[in-house]
Write a structure and sequence with these properties.
The complex is a heterodimer of chains A (about 120) and B (about 120).
Chain A (H helix, E strand, L loop, with lengths): L3 E3 L2 E5 L4 E6 L4 E9 L6 E7 L4 E3 L4 E5 L4 E6 L8 E9 L11 E2 L3 E6 L1
Parallel strand pairs in A: 2-11
Antiparallel strand pairs in A: 1-3, 3-8, 4-5, 4-9, 5-6, 7-8, 9-10, 9-11
Chain B lengths: L4 E3 L2 E4 L5 E6 L6 E7 L6 E7 L2 E4 L8 E4 L6 E5 L8 E8 L9 E2 L3 E5 L1
Parallel strand pairs in B: 2-11
Antiparallel strand pairs in B: 1-3, 3-8, 4-5, 4-9, 5-6, 7-8, 9-10, 9-11
The chains are: A mainly beta (about 120), B mainly beta (about 120).
């Protein structure tokens, strides 16, 4: 049930763009994106919900294809501060007992932005 | 305002020792989660509290793991008779309400090393 993230790692020069993908084999209610810097807490970026609703930061954009059970995070004009590991967390449809809190995270995508 | 805090930040235990990890969630947050994060992996769900009630402990790896939140605020994750495979970062997260729409706020984690 763990979502699959791609790529595993990406290296950018400052100002370049990147796309991080997250796919699931199960039908999803929502996808949550977090960024974690080494030794620090994961930080919330965005929630994408079935039906197109989104909640998150203005400077981050993402998409959620419900039919394909896929989400993509778009990082444009990258800054040094974007470096870190990006995780997607998925909430599955049809969870038992209404477990709409149980995030299952992917293995992460390590993003490095160089000057 | 203060975020989620965890203590200790680092813990080294000899195999067989008991350890207790503390989490102070954001004041007023009803929902509290514990996750285990192995090196190079995403956070993995352990257990979930709504106020003082432990509603889901399906992710606890064995009966050596025990979590409590007696007054609906601070939570403690206890691991008895620690084993080397327990070595990981233990993350705590809280949210206002655990549902599809609300992000989880993570603490910095406790890095547990079992020798």
């Amino acid at each position: 049930q763990q979502p699959v993230q791609s790529p595993q790692a990406v290296i950018l020069r400052e100002g370049e763009d990147a796309v991080i993908n997250c796919s699931s084999s199960k039908a999803l209610y929502s996808v949550h994106w977090y960024r974690q810097k080494h030794g620090e807490a994961p930080v919330f970026l965005m929630i994408l919900l079935k039906g197109g609703e989104q909640k998150g930061h203005d400077k981050i954009s993402a998409s959620f294809n419900e039919k394909k059970q896929q989400s993509s995070l778009y990082l444009t004009a990258s800054q040094l501060s974007y470096s870190g590991t990006y995780f997607c967390g998925t909430l599955l449809r049809g969870g038992s007992g209404g477990s709409n809190y149980k995030l299952t995270f992917g293995k992460g995508t390590l993003l490095t932005v160089n000057p | 305002g203060a975020g989620v805090s965890q203590s200790p930040r680092y813990k080294v235990a000899k195999r067989g020792q008991d350890v207790a990890l503390r989490c102070d969630p954001i004041s007023g947050h009803v929902s509290l989660f514990w996750y285990q994060q192995a090196l190079g992996q995403g956070p993995e769900f352990l257990t979930y509290f709504q106020n003082e009630a432990q509603l889901d402990k399906s992710g606890l790896p064995s009966d050596r793991f025990f979590a409590e939140r007696p007054e609906g605020s601070v939570s403690t994750l206890k691991i008895q008779r620690t084993q080397q495979e327990d070595s990981a970062v233990y993350l705590c997260a809280s949210s206002t309400v655990a549902d599809l729409y609300n992000e989880q706020f993570f603490g910095p984690g406790t890095r547990l090393t079992v020798l």
